[in-house]
Amino acid sequence: YDAAVQQANGIESGIFYHFGHYDQCLKLTQKQQQQQQQQQQQQLQQEQGQEHSNNNSITIVAKYCLVDVFIDELIVQNTGSRKIRQDSSPQNQTTELLIRWGACMPASCGPNDIAIFAKHALQRKVNVNDNMCQLYKPELHITAGMYTYAFVICFFIFVTVLSTLYHTYLLSSKSDKDIIDVEKSSAKPQRTLDEILLTFSLIENCSKLFQASKDQLSLNCINGIKSLAMLLILAGHVLIFIYGSPVYNVEFLSQNIKSPIFAFLPNSMLVVDVFLLLSGFLFCRILLVELRRRHGQINVLILYVARWIRLTPAYLVTIGFYMTWFPSLGDGPLWQQRIEREQERCISSWFLNILYINNYFNVDKLCMFQSWYLAVDSQLFFLSPIIIYLLNRSRKYGIILLSITAVITSIIPFIISYTKNLSPTLMIYSNEAEDINSSYYYKNFYIKTHMRASAYVIGLFVGYLVHEMQARNIKLPSPIVRFLWLLATVIGSSCMLTISRFYAYPYNRLESSIYAGFHKIGWNMSVAWLILAASTGHAGWIQKFLCHRIFAPISRLTYCAYLSNGIVELYYSSSSKTAPQISYIRVVDSVVSHIINTFAVALILCLLFESPIHALERILLRNSKGSRNHQISEKKSNKSESPHTSEEQIA
To answer: What range(s) does the Nose resistant-to-fluoxetine protein N-terminal domain occupy (predicted)?
Structure first.
């Protein structure tokens, strides 16, 4: 009784999670078992002097359940409900609310029994799902899938240790001239075996990870842009999961999300377009160079195969973790519901993820909330050579096709948003942020390639412009440069910060559709100018800052950080056992700690899987037919002979 919620408070202020004492409830089982053992020992001691009585103790196993309680006719002052925000008129709205109520019941009670009891006690409409009830689990139940996954991980660790020891042996027993350099010895087939043995070496991969980039095509600024964009995206993910988790002072979030000062956090999804733009830019820039160098003779199929090999292994390892061990690594009132839900989704649709079509098929079971990006980027990567080939063969017709594509991809979001009365973008409401994958806007519009393609197309256009400007050594006049910097700053800031208006005012169909259709264009054009200016010598101190070597390792870890961030955010949000009070200091603390943890996991994922397998791919495809073609995509972000490519460094 003491572990269950006695009385809810703060409902009118938007506190909808009332957990009670989760640990105390489940530990009641242990206490009862200990009491039974003590009673049995006492009975054994009494057997010598008197006849044993048959009064056996009874063990009562406790069960913790979160009961859905529906409360209507209640004025709510602060909430993150899309329905309340769009119903306009008064600030305080009346609606039916869903409250999560912690109950501690005997394990013998089924969901129906608990529902009957809760309905009688609370005099409200209630619902109890079996996946919201948990028992104390003293022992870990290991399945065949968990054994298989553990074996694969241990195998890679074992190979990494052997490779590192072998590399250490070479370093200690041979002079520097005799040590095999993977890159410099690539033309010596007799050393292929030694190269393969060194691909998993921690010494080799750490050296590649932290070395400075070689600025072959004046593209070092990409490291800084990618690093800063990833940090901002991760900060936005933290805010989304905080908003979708139990919070004591909901009004803090609901008020600050309306402020333009903090708009960069709820609108951090806009920054994802930076990576789509960069992907299109780099692919166009490098492919044009290689097409002209080889007179248009490139086997595109090799590019597709090389990309799949680079992206998929680390991706599969992450998906496998969701499917096997993740549900066993934590607990909490929300843990079973949220983490096992993610596990079920990955079991249902993992094959769609590695085919990179999961943003269109079985979207109700989308595995990994952030995985849509890989699908969108891969689909655009697959289609973009058509435009790039035409740009190389006929500048006039290539620009015409690129311009038509840009116009179409810009108009599509406006038309769809207007005809379907959609929000201006993916807006963050607590009742939807709890499970972002189930959001109607997210799964039907936000993750679709036709809604995101404009950024990639602008990237292709900028790649072509930079290619021509560098080839002809074109420099813009200073007045034009200053004007473009001012224009890009104003437009980019406006597109980012004006999202706060849609949280503060009632829904307007036309206004929302205009923003949905064109705010990404303005933002992407601003970022496009930053890339063009920094790549062609028009950025001054900004270019020097973005090219700083500190960004090189961060940039190379962005792909693995993108994969691992979902694990970090789901762990923290699902293991919460109380509703914390949020403040600016605590938000900053959460952002910093989550970013550090994300990159810590990313480092492990990179050194054990991504970096070694990418090195293997380079070795195995190097001497194959058309192998020179696959090296195009290697250059896209790995100008420093690092084990990463721009396609992999996505968020």
So the answer is: 1-116
